[in-house]
UniProtKB/TrEMBL annotation:
Residues 1-84, 562-583 are annotated as: Disordered. This is ubiquitinyl hydrolase 1. GO terms for biological process: protein K48-linked deubiquitination; proteolysis. The lineage of its organism: Eukaryota, Viridiplantae, Streptophyta, Embryophyta, Tracheophyta. Gene3D superfamilies: EF-hand.
Length: 610
């Protein structure tokens, strides 16, 4: 009997392997399984997956390598690589559709929510989908309806902006047509300027950017080796196989009465799939994106990221693994969650590297450069210091943190991160000085080392200045720098009669995904005007003036509010006209942690980071 069953399974696998297109046993097998009273739907689906994987392996072993089926694209076609490698991918991906073990489910639940989590917090995280705004003017913003999951949405939003604004080539190829004015303009080798016509992005382009962003984050968490995708076992493959018109019905039926209130609930409803190639993960995400758009989307994506990293690795990343990742009492995403999605590690701090506390104890920060960065209001309040890894990302996009919310700030021009003449010269001189500093960071060097700095940086000091600096036998950085600020540019200094050498002017945009009533965008109904719920988008003009005096340069102080008594220029040579007083909002304080002394102005309501 067993031999007969094995022979029947082999014949079924052989039939699937002979199909011209990728095998699709999941369409017919459930109907066959329905006639078997002793076979559950879960067992049936598991058998289908095993047979499909076995068939793919047999086919690859028989042919030696993957060969395009009749009618499939050849390698010379634009999509040939995907077509010829599809069976190879399926052969590798033999662990699809696994249920989360009971142990993993309990570890995951208590890692995220801890003990005694309130039903309100669980409801917040179980009722937030990953959806774009329906409002045309803010259609590229992911909308937030519930408090709590904003950290997850903001991180995804930042990557979506990266793909839409700066990396649209793959999206254009996939969609075959994207409006010309959404393509970034290359002005130089390293500078790009994206379009500000946000309403021009097609639904197809946005959907593909979302899929690319989610896949990129999951592989980042998986150390570029794997991505784990968590979905709902009650949905199975119904969404992937159904017509578009039936998708919402299938998801609504699966979510009816579904709630996550305990680790046991998590164990019952989750299904996890592991992918080892980006192409296979993107294909799967594209097929089940309606599941992530449903009310469980944000939670499912957080779980996917944690499982991609590995639960034990997540706990090892943290300074205090006993605390929940979702913080009480309001259910906000912790910094560890945001860092996991931005840099692939659930470290709790925002400084670079790690901080040694002595005695074998240290605090963990961000150890690598990132694609999109992070700024926080807490730095302006002196609660933390964001390192260069997060503050200066590859693309001019930042998640912005406040005490209770996460939003997104970005620029269309990558040049906003370039050093201006003053900043570049400062970096050059400081690097040369630090190379001669043998004091362990004390900020002073020997006379011999000082002369080496002058030669390397082409600084020609008058004899009286040189004698004054070298009189004590060592040179202090602060004294040296004040001399440089008052030294003419022709002699290698930074004295600039125009007062414009350190100035920058550029535009920033700020997204707040929390929907807000807008009467200007109201819709008419039989009951009268209905205010449109739309996210908030603000354009800011930012001017970064030069520092006024050597003293202010050293202090790196912020611009004081209008009418306040501030430091006055101490010398005629360094005095320049001060700008008009800027408008102020907490976001401006965040911007000044990246661009000190920034003056910001906008039209309309002030940007909100809460």
């Amino acid at each position: 009997m067993a031999d007969q069953q094995e022979e029947e399974d082999l014949r079924m696998a052989l039939r699937m392997s002979m199909q011209n297109s990728p095998p699709e046993p999941k369409r017919s097998k459930p109907r066959e399984a329905a006639n078997l009273a002793t076979t559950t739907p879960e067992e049936s689906r598991r058998l289908q997956r095993e047979l499909m994987a076995a068939a793919a392996e047999k086919r690859m072993l028989a042919t030696g390598k993957s060969v395009p089926a009749s009618g499939s694209p050849s390698k010379s076609d634009s999509g040939g690589d995907i077509g010829t490698k599809e069976m190879e991918i399926k052969a590798k991906e033999v662990k699809l559709g696994n249920e989360l073990s009971e142990k993993e489910a309990y570890q995951l639940f208590f890692m995220v929510f801890g003990n005694g989590v309130s039903k309100d917090i669980l409801a917040q995280w179980s009722n937030q989908g990953i959806r774009f705004s329906p409002d045309p003017e803010t259609s590229m913003i992911l909308v937030q309806h519930e408090g709590g999951p904003c950290g997850v949405l903001a991180a995804i939003q930042a990557f979506v902006l990266k793909h839409l604004l700066f990396c649209p080539d793959d999206l254009v190829k996939a969609a075959q047509s994207t409006p010309q004015n959404t393509t970034p303009r290359r002005l130089s080798k390293n500078q790009y300027v994206a379009s500000n016509n946000f309403a021009a992005f097609t639904e197809n382009a946005k959907a593909r950017a979302l899929v690319k962003s989610m896949g990129e984050i999951l592989f980042l968490c998986g150390n570029n080796k794997r991505a784990v995708i968590a979905t709902l076992s009650s949905i199975g493959d119904g969404v992937e196989e159904s017509e578009d018109s039936l998708t919402d019905v299938i998801i609504a039926q699966a979510l009816e009465g579904l709630s996550i209130e305990s680790a046991s609930d998590l164990h019952k409803v989750l299904r996890v799939e592991t992918y080892t190639t980006p192409a296979s993960a993107y294909k799967r995400l594209e097929a089940i994106i309606p599941v992530f758009q449903s009310r469980m989307g944000a939670l499912l994506f957080l779980i996917s990221a944690l499982l991609s990293r590995g639960l034990d690795c997540v706990q090892a990343d943290r300074d205090d693994p006993s605390l929940p990742l979702v913080t009480a009492p309001f259910g906000h995403a912790s910094q560890e969650i945001v860092n996991l999605l931005l840099c692939g590690q659930a470290v709790p701090n925002v400084f670079d590297g790690r901080m040694d506390l002595g005695g074998g104890m240290f605090l963990k920060g961000v150890s690598t450069n990132v694609e999109v960065g992070f700024l926080t209001l807490l730095e302006s309040l002196n609660f933390c210091k964001v390192g260069r890894n997060l503050k200066c990302p590859k693309w001019p996009i930042w998640v912005v943190g406040s005490e209770s919310h996460y939003t997104v700030l970005f620029a269309l021009d990558t040049a906003v991160q370039d050093e201006n003449e003053l900043e570049a010269r400062e970096s050059q001189i400081r690097k040369a000085f630090d190379a001669q500093d043998q004091s362990g960071g004390g900020g002073f060097i020997s006379v011999e080392g000082f002369h080496q700095v002058l030669r390397e940086t082409n600084i020609r000091l008058p004899s009286e200045k040189l004698d004054s600096l070298c009189g004590s036998g060592f040179i202090v950085w602060s004294e040296f720098w004040q001399v440089i600020l008052d030294l003419d540019k022709s002699l290698g200094g930074l004295k600039d009669s125009t007062g414009q050498m350190g100035q920058k002017i550029f535009d920033l945009y700020h997204f707040n995904g929390i929907a807000k009533s807008d009467l200007n965008g109201s819709q008419f109904s039989s009951g009268g005007e209905t205010p449109m719920q739309r996210p908030r988008l603000t354009k800011l003009r930012v001017s970064v003036p030069p520092r006024w005096t050597p003293e202010e340069f050293m202090a790196d102080v912020a611009v004081l509010p209008s009418g306040s008594a501030g430091a006055q220029p101490s010398g005629k040579d360094t005095e320049v006209a001060k700008p008009e007083p800027s408008q102020h909002a907490p976001l401006v304080d965040c911007i000044r942690t990246r661009w000190p002394r920034a003056v910001c102005n906008w039209v309309g309501d002030p940007p909100s980071i809460v």
